[in-house]
Each structure stands twice: as structure tokens, then as C-alpha cells.
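Q: How would the C-alpha cells look for this protein?
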Amino acid sequence: MSALGAVEAEAGAGAGPGGAALFRPLGAEDGEQRPAEIESLCMKCHHNGVTRLLLTRVPFFRELIVSSFSCPACGWADAEIQPAGSIQERGVRYTLAVGARQDMNREVVKTDCATARIPELDFEIPAFSQKGVLTTIEGIIDRAVMGLEQDQPVRWATDKEVASKIDEFIGKLKQLKEVHSPFTFIIDDPSGNSFVENPYAPQKDEALVVTHYKRTPQQAAMLGIEGEELDEKPADSVEDLRNEVLQFNTNCPECNAPANTNMKLVQIPHFKEVIIMATNCDSCGHRTNEVKSGGAIEPQGTRITLRITDPSDMTRDILKSETCSVEIPELEFELGMGALGGKFTTLEGLLKDIKDLVERNPFTLGDSSTPSKKEKLQAFVGRLQEIIEGKTKAHFIMDDPAGNSYLQNVYAPEEDPELQVERYERTFEQNEELGINDMRTEGYEAAADR
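A: Here is the predicted structure in C-alpha cell form.
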């Protein structure tokens, strides 16, 4: 049975015993997180071996299936990872400037359809040339070295010149692990399911750039999704949508059991219409909500700055779109675009979500963290809690290039002395990230005729 087949069989029963989540956060402290063992055939010696499957969730990422196989008869062993979810709406590219030895220890999820590159050596690991792995940057380089060394004895016997050049290149790869000079490490995954750890999370990592992009037709064909068409139904009138709560079936993001998602079009006073989606799971009790903008991208971006001076500021309504970043200068904290998704909540609710996001990360507060890192994160959580309780004054900044975020003005329609709203012209890079540089709304018919 394949890894995905085994998961589907287990997911069919909904949550685990006692309502436990099927995918549990990655961490050594969880005594109940044990791999499932399946007897399976060894393809080397054709005796029976054991396949172990671990269903886990990587913080700031998503669910994964970690599988390994071992054969006691011949000693053959193998391991790989597979995304437990679907192909993402957009591809993802991680670009890391490796400048220190500790960067080699960053956790990396590389799926089988991802491409790994090191431009300084003109080195590339093509898509589908390796199985998916959960490893480190050093581990990826080690796997590449092992792959090149595997056929060296044959090359020395047949073509010594090629073998000599490959030995020279292997030496350069091994030198990279010592980081004597900076280099660039790039993971490009059209499926959007690869990941490179940010050790400073939830703060911004200046050395790591994450880019989400629209797949090309060639990449879509490579993933087997070319020509997919969604069944479109006639849209209801806008008035009907305002008065009706739509419901559709989905799976719970925590336990993967069947659940219902409710969707409603809502008018926010002094702002615009938004779409609120809420999911409630009857199996594990998990609840979540997400907000999508009901309108177009605004002509200008919006930067909203709130000076938090009173505990009552925590009750302000807030709409954070998926394209909005959040900054708290006093904590040197920045939450990038896409993190936490779209939310319609209060300021207190959003700050608590940020606090929970930090506390649930085992890479920073778990067994894999260092004492100094753990102390810094605990101090950050403590200072954030003081802001939530109104004991510390701070600035809360929302920057949305799409202009679809909102923070309540409690003095509306008068001006709020603690709230500043700025409109600004987007940069070329921001327009590129929103996908509107190549968008044509006029004259496209004439261009198509040519």
C-alpha cells in the first residue's frame, strides 16, 4: 500500500482514538505521536520488511507524510516525504543567502517535483530526480555528493577525464558545507509544497526571500493538472448572496474529517464588502474563519498605523487580508504577507493568534531549539502579552499593497487621533507579487486579433 493510500484508509475513519488529531505538530515532547508500521515487500531481496508512516504537521507550513522502509533480511533502507494535502494554488520559490555555518542546519522540506539550485556553482538538482525529503540544507548537499560519487568507479574505468572533473566538482560541494564564502540556495517548487525554515520566526528573516508565483502551462502539465476546469454554476444575484449563508463540504484542517464551511457576504461599515468563511468540525471541535476581499484590488496600497494607548483599543474590529503584512516596531516584529491568512476579528484576537503561532513552533520553543533562542522567544511572548493586557504602549502597523485591509475607527465618521491611514503608490515588485503588471483591461481584444 502506498503512503497516500494508507493515509486515506486511516482518514476514512475521521479523527484518531479519543478525537485525537490525525496530523499532530512535529515535536519530541508528544508521547502519543508514534509512526504506523505496515509489513511490505522489499524490492531488493523480495523478503518482507517494515514501512513506517508518521503523519505530522510542520509549523508555519502544512501536513506531511514521513515514510521509511527497512528490511531486516538484506539491510536495505529508504526514506521519503510526501505532502498530505493538495497541490497549492501557486508555486513557491525560497531564496536563501547562506552566510554562516548555522544556516546549513535549517530544516528543509523538498518535494519530488521541486528543483534545488546553487547558482554560484551552476549546480541544479532537477525536479523528479530525487524522492521528497525532510532534511537540512547540509543534508541536501550530502545527498547530491552521494549521488555523484555512486558511479565514480565506473567513470574512472571508462572516462578518466570526466571522472576527474566530477571529483573536482564534488570537492567544491563539500567546501560549501564549511561556508568559507557566502552562496545562494534556491528551492523552486511549482506545487507550492516545499519549505525552508525561518529560524527567527515569527520575525522576518532578512536572508530568506519567499516568492509565490503563478505556474506556467509547462509546470502545470508537469504536475498533471493541465486542462483542469472547474465546474461553474450560474452566479446568484448580489442581493441573494447578501441575505444567504452558503454552505459547502470540505475536510477539517486539523483531523481531516469531513466538515462544513459556511460562507457569507458582509458589508463592513465605512469600508467595503468582504466574504467571511467559517469552518466548524464536529469530530474534533476545531473552528476556524477566513476572510476574502469582496472587491477588486484598490488603485493604491494602504498603510494603517494605530498607536495603542488604552486596553479598550484591543476591542477594535480588524480585517486583515491575505496580502497584508503586520509590524510592531517596539518588538522588532514583522508578520509577512500570507501568514495567518485573511482574518476578520478584533485587535486582541489577532495578537493572540500571533502569540499562539509562536508558542506552537517546536523549531523555536521545542526540543530542536537552543536555550538562547528559547529565552528570546519567551521574552517576546511575554512582551506581546503585556501589549494584549494594555500594560505596554506600542504601535501596530498594517501594510496592504492591495488596499483591502481595515482597522476600526471608533470615532467614525470623525477622525481618530490614534489612527493614521496612508495611501501610497505601489512599487513594481508589489504589483508583480499581486500579478497586475501583465494584466490588461483595455485593448486586449485588438492585441488578441493580431
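The first strand starts at residue 24 and ends at 25.

Residues 1-20, 228-236 have pLDDT under 50 and may be disordered.

Upvote if useful.
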